[in-house]
Design a protein that fits this description.
Blueprint lengths: L2 H16 L4 H24 L2 H7 L9 E2 L6 E3 L6 E3 L15 H9 L8 E6 L13 E5 L2 E6 L2 E6 L6 E4 L11 E10 L3 E2 L5 E2 L2 E8 L6 E11 L5 E11 L2 E8 L7 E10 L2 E6 L2 E6 L7 E8 L9 E9 L4 H8 L1 E4 L16 H13 L5 E6 L6 H21 L7 E7 L10 H7 L1 E6 L1
Parallel strand pairs: 22-23
Antiparallel strand pairs: 1-6, 2-3, 4-20, 5-8, 6-7, 7-20, 8-19, 9-16, 9-20, 10-11, 12-13, 12-19, 13-14, 14-15, 16-17, 17-18, 21-24, 22-24
Helix pairs in contact: 2-6, 4-6
């Protein structure tokens, strides 16, 4: 990349970071963020150090991957390098561990709007350890289902840049003209390989292609590595077609956390593309060609199995209709942008951008009152699903009240698996049934 182009990209980034996302939204979000910060500060004074560790466990935790046959000691398939269960490893030297509250603050300012109609969703639930993920196909290399912190993940298991694609009936034209793509990606902790070299290098590439072809449309690269002094380095690079030209943007040192899960998001709207890491918008491409399909490619260096590259929670959704328009047409709106880990009722940090849009909607329309209704699919026990949906809807109401919405404007209700809107016999149907509805009262 030329120095001129690089400087232009950096200047554009600095300009974007400093501006308001949208005047109307951010006016409300600023107030919300101030209230949330006050709440966080008050709570932090009361938290013990052990509670703080529990609070951040979703971002930083054990770095040992579990396969089907070995729970505590893993062996790399090609060099048989043993990796012991490392417990809760510390972040790299000089790098503070990410805290859930600070991540929530970042997402509170995010302008990412997830699509409102799910067309592909893979939380890897029900997959078998050591097997190839059932919703994907392989282009090259090898991946398998493994576990990290008790969760299923898609793990890179070969050194030849494994490349995977989601399964669709039409494998080269499944992305609509308006869509969002999201997934979580793992960045390992610093360590030394058997030769004493620093590792790992975790690198993820998203290759997007024009419909019905293998012709390049866009490429996105997330790259992280450690230098000899344990310095954690990272880059975010994107290349895209604009007419007959290929153009590039790059950001050095984006917000990516080591020894943690991080979140990637992409939105495309007819000809404009935006790129996000952990809720921060880095790429804003006003004019590029429409992609029709994509590949995800992994890269990892080093022999330690625990430092391999891995992804989870992959979702593609269509469209992004404003909340108010959805509510006015149906008397309610359904959101898939408020997410939880499997079987849990703790709101994930990346949900904060959606939650703050709801806060903005209710702030700008003070007469609005909602019943917040949680829904699950039919996986598991009906009684457990009922309890889970009740706890999730209550958690959402509690968060909205914490952010300044009057409690008498909200009520919570869990519907469990009793009100499906799609076929529970398909993966896509179950994904649509796992939802939150805001019903106007």
């Amino acid at each position: 990349m030329s120095e001129t182009a690089k400087n232009a990209a950096e200047n554009a980034l600095n300009s974007k970071v400093g501006e308001k996302v949208e005047n109307a939204v951010n006016k409300a979000v600023d107030n919300v963020t101030d209230k949330a910060s006050e709440s966080v500060n008050k709570k932090s004074e009361k938290k013990s150090s052990s509670e703080s560790e529990d609070k951040s466990a979703s971002s930083v935790g054990s770095t040992s991957f579990d396969s089907a046959n070995n729970a505590n000691i893993q062996y790399d398939d090609w060099d048989l390098d043993p990796t012991l269960d490392a417990g809760s490893a510390a972040p790299a030297a000089g790098v503070a561990a990410p805290q859930v509250n600070s991540i929530e603050m970042t997402y509170a300012k995010s302008d990412f709007v997830p699509g409102d109609e799910i067309i592909f969703d893979d939380n890897l639930e029900g997959e078998q350890l050591g097997e190839f993920p059932s919703k994907w196909d392989i282009i090259q290399g090898a991946v398998e289902i493994s576990k990290l912190n008790g969760e299923n993940v898609i793990l890179c298991t070969s050194p030849d840049d494994p490349t995977i694609v989601p399964l669709f009936d039409d494998m080269k034209n499944y992305l609509p003209e308006m869509f969002t793509l999201e997934f979580d990606f793992w960045v390992g902790p610093h360590s030394k390989d058997p030769n004493g070299d620093d590792e790992p290098q975790n690198r993820y590439e998203i290759h997007l292609y024009k419909p019905d072809s293998q012709n390049f449309a866009q490429e996105v690269i997330i790259d992280t590595w450690y230098s000899s002094d344990q310095e954690f380095s990272k880059e975010f690079i994107w290349t895209f077609k604009a007419g007959d030209d290929s153009r590039q943007g790059q950001v050095d040192n984006p917000q990516i956390y080591p020894n943690a899960w991080n979140h990637f998001a992409l939105s495309f709207n007819k000809r404009a593309m935006k790129l996000y890491l952990n809720g921060i918008r880095y790429g804003n491409i006003p004019n590029t060609v429409r992609p029709g399909h994509f590949h995800i490619q992994f890269y990892r260096s080093g022999g330690h199995f625990q430092n391999n590259s891995a992804i989870k929670n992959i979702r593609i959704a269509q469209g992004a209709v404003p909340l108010y328009d959805r509510m006015m047409s149906d008397g309610k709106f359904i959101t898939y942008g408020i997410t939880f880990d499997i079987g849990k009722s703790t709101i994930k940090p990346e949900s904060m951008s959606e939650i703050n849009r709801i806060v903005t909607l209710m702030t700008e329309n003070p007469s609005l009152k909602f019943s917040v209704e949680g829904h699950t699919d039919n996986t598991g026990n009906a009684a457990s699903n009922q309890t889970l949906s009740e706890n999730r809807s209550k958690a959402i109401v509690d968060k909205l009240v914490e952010l300044g919405i009057a409690a008498d404007r909200l009520s919570s209700s869990g519907k469990g698996q009793n009100s499906p809107i799609a076929d529970n016999s398909t993966d896509e149907g179950r994904a649509k049934n796992r939802r939150v509805e805001f019903v106007k009262k």
